[in-house]
Each structure stands twice: as structure tokens, then as C-alpha cells.
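Researcher: Structure prediction, please.
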Amino acid sequence: MSTQTPAPLGLPPLEIDEFLTWLSAEKGRSPNTIAAYRRDLLAYAAWLAARGETLGAVTGSTLDAYVAHTRGLGRAPASVSRSLVAVRSLHRFLAEEELAPSDPGARVEVPRVPAGLPKALSEQEVDRLLQLVVGDGPWVLRDRAVLEVLYGTGARISELVGLSLADVDLGSALLRVFGKGAKERVIPLGRCARGALTDWLGPAGREAVEPQRWARRGDAEAVFLNQRGGRLSRQGAWGIVRKYGDAAGLGDRLTPHVLRHSCATHMLDHGADIRAVQELLGHASISTTQVYTLVSSERLAQVYHAAHPRAGAH
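Model: Predicted structure follows.
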């Protein structure tokens, strides 16, 4: 890394291209993420050019002005926040690579985005999704277990792929997961999730695809494997969810986190105590879990107005 005083920066796209290449090659960001960053950063570069400013001269006040500019365009709060995340990431990269004298975004806060209601699937949609995972091959057994555990336990995708064999107690129908901040919690396995895990961990599933020699230490203990015999990654698990979501006609509506949302919402729909749901999901604050009660209340109102003979429009 150079220790020389950097020359004044010209305008992108050169710096943007270097940053995006780094995001792709070093950080493994998806093509869709790279494309979104590119759009946001090119818009930022055009705004700087119109002001006659260079990247090297940007200050925190400049970034505050840019946030005001994007808000003035009538963009949604989420779009404003996403744009500033891209801009701050660019400046942090340039500072760390000593391509800029400082990081002007270090003390600029990303605007808060109002919390939206989780977009849970209906119970019928979940049933349709799970019914598509048919067959007896080992990878089908794995995929069924992935989907059943995500929906049946409300586990985060990082918790799912982080599972080791010692974390699974099929006899007691319990699962130990490590959530945010490595906080441990033990959650119950329902009948369907337990059955799917039993099949996957049996002779026709995981045992049938175990490699003769494990490539990395820790892979031998992984509950979920990829087809190369290594621990299933977050991206790999995401791909499984997307594959069956597309087959079920759910498209972009389905993500691993939507299955978590659906687990919580359906439990509350069926009368679960909110504290129990909080414990299951590993929420540090009850206020996080309370968002799901809004979803359930909304559904209750829809069902009521559709079903009660004196509740409909007259």
C-alpha cells in the first residue's frame, strides 16, 4: 500500500470502478448488489460534478447536502438510506486504500428507515412451497430439511448454516443455534422439521454424500453440506430457497428471512404468546417481536370483515 501523499482525485468513473471491482472480487457481493451500488454512485458522481467538487474535497457537510438533495427528489426513505450507504462505503474504501486523505462519511449517520411490516407468506403458500420438494435423493432430503427448519424454527439463515452436528438433539427435538453476538439459544423442533432433519442426517442423506476426506476443518461437523462436501454457505442456502420459491411462483416475495417472518406471524395467528415468540426468534427486545402482532392484527381484521355476516359493506 502506498504511503505517498495522494494526488487530487479526479471524478469517477475510475474510482467507482476500482471500488466496485473490490466489492465483487474481495467482498463477494452479488451482481445485483454491484449494479445497485453502481447506479447510486454514478448519480452521486454526477451531483458532485454539477457542484464542481472532487471526491478528495468531499466533507461531512457535502454528504449532508447530498442527503438533502436526494430527499428533495422525493425518493423513499429506504432509497435515500441505501444511496448514502453506497456513498459512505466508497469514501471508506478510498480512505483505507490511501486514495483519499480522510473518510468524510465516518461521522455521517445513515437516515433511519421507518420499519415496514414483514411480508409473511400465507399458510397455503408455505404448504405449496414445501410440497414441491419431492424425491428421495440426498440433495432433495437436504433441501427439504433446509426449508422445514427455516420455517419450523424461525432460524436466521446464518444460524442455519452455522449448525454443527452437536447442536442437533433429535431425541429431545431440540436445536441449539447461535444468533447475533454469538448469543446461544435452544429452540424446539416441530414434527415436520424434526422428520426432515432425521431423513437428511440418515444413511440416505448426509451420510451418502460425505466425502472420503474433508477439505476444511469444521466441515465434518457441519449439519448442512454443499455438493462439494463442504459446509453449506449462506449463498448456497439462499439459492435453495430461491429455487423452490421460483417453482412455487413466489419469485422475489420469498427469501430466507420471509420464512422467519412467516413462522412468527403464523404462530401469533394461532394464539402463541408474544414472549414465547420473542424467545424463539432470539429478539433482544420485545418491541422487535411486536411488529408481527401488527401483521396478525391486520390479518385478523381481513378475516373478520370477509367472514362475519354483519361486518361486510352494506
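Model: Residues 1-12 have pLDDT under 50 and may be disordered.
Researcher: Thanks, that helps.
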